[in-house]
Design goal:
The chain is an alpha+beta fold. Among the domains are: 135 residues, no CATH class; 92 residues, 3-Layer(aba) Sandwich (Aminopeptidase), CATH 3.40.630.30. It is built from 15 helices and five strands. A five-stranded antiparallel beta sheet has the order 1-2-3-4-5, with helices on both faces.
Length: 357
């Protein structure tokens, strides 16, 4: 028994040794199920181990002891050296027992982070997402704040394209997708949702300028969340990130077309000190510099207009403002109902910067 106890990290050994020497059946766990012995000696905060200890002393099967302690049976394969911190609340079930064992950590120094990742994935996601996280989550660096929860949200709606939020997913989850690609897809999903929430379902009333055709070029305002989202998708640019400025009447987004093809996206701005509309940026696909003839057409058209003043900087439409909570709740209602909780990172009403964008 002592040889097995010494396989645990040194700082945990005294309590484990004290518990194991108190009763032979407890000591047997050092060989048969090290995770159970570790969890009995060093439970996570708030966990009462007395019912589980009574189960051990009564000679119950390992499965009953594990159930009483909330330790999944698939942890039985982990060696004592893998336990570097009290075990978090971990998921269990037939699917996980069958599949997650193929992705158990191989190095002790990454085991605690791996277990925390699996616990967080189970807290916010579905079983197939948990298994995917067990396989794909990086072990060299801790995931960023809310990385797992945001990925779980994207995964959830990837499987539900019929929902409003599901319609915002442009790249859907699949078992073969890698971690970095998933993080990028989840971020894109949140950007699209953010655009819908910030602008609501009410079209923008004031485009600042009038649509125009100059030669072969058409200049068209993007007056809704759907129009801005479509522009971002076709042009592969970051225009969705301007939704907040559009909502606060600091910005307008236009599109340049020729023969039905989108050539460039124009951003018009104002400032609190300069209420006259100016060209802030003109971008071709993938945020590249447009062709000279496109730039010449844009500037030639704009410079031919009379100076345009807008004193609405920083004043959001009351109608859009009232619409935001309705749009937000309609998007997330399926997830809240399925998970039966309101996460702090996905509250009932949106803040001024949904998801921190």
């Amino acid at each position: 028994m002592e040889r097995r106890i010494r396989l645990f990290e040194t700082r945990w050994q005294p309590t484990i040794r004290q518990l194991a020497t108190a009763q032979g059946r407890i000591a047997d766990l050092a060989v048969s199920f090290p995770a159970l012995l570790f969890a009995l000696a060093h439970p996570r905060r708030g966990l009462d181990v007395r019912p589980a200890l009574n189960t051990v002393l009564a000679g119950a099967p390992l499965a009953d002891i594990a159930a009483a302690l909330g330790v999944p049976m698939w942890l039985r394969r982990l060696q004592p050296s893998m336990f570097r911190a009290p075990l978090p609340a971990l998921p269990d079930g037939p699917l996980l027992r069958h599949r997650i064992v193929n992705h158990l950590p191989r190095r002790a120094k990454s085991a605690a982070q791996w277990l925390e990742t699996v616990a967080e994935a189970a807290r916010w996601g579905e079983p197939d997402f948990v298994v995917w996280c067990a396989r794909e989550a990086p072990t060299g660096a801790k995931p960023g704040e809310h990385d797992i929860s945001y990925l779980a949200l994207w995964h959830f709606f990837s499987q539900r394209p019929e929902t409003q939020a599901g319609g915002c997913v442009d790249r859907r989850w699949g078992e073969a997708i890698g971690w970095d690609a998933a993080v990028t897809a989840a971020r894109s999903f949140r950007m699209t949702v953010m655009t819908k929430v910030l602008l609501g379902d009410i079209p923008i009333a004031d485009p600042w300028l009038q649509p125009a055709t100059v030669g072969d070029f058409k200049f068209l305002p993007l007056l809704s969340a759907a129009a801005i989202i479509e522009e971002a998708s076709v042009m592969d640019n970051c225009v969705r990130g301007l939704a907040g400025s559009v909502a606060w009447n600091r910005y307008r987004v236009w599109s340049v077309h020729r023969n039905g093809e989108r050539l460039a996206t124009i951003g018009f701005g104002t400032t609190s000190l300069h209420p006259f509309v100016f060209i802030d940026q003109v971008k071709a696909k993938s945020n590249r510099r447009p062709d000279p003839e496109v730039l010449a057409a844009v500037h030639g058209w704009f410079e031919g207009l009379q100076q345009i003043r807008r004193d609405t900087w920083g004043k959001r439409s009351p109608e859009v403002n009232a619409e935001r909570p309705k749009v937000w709740r309609a998007l997330w209602r399926p997830y809240w109902l399925e998970r039966r909780r309101l996460p702090t990172w996905l509250p009932l009403s949106p803040n001024e910067r949904p998801f921190g964008f």
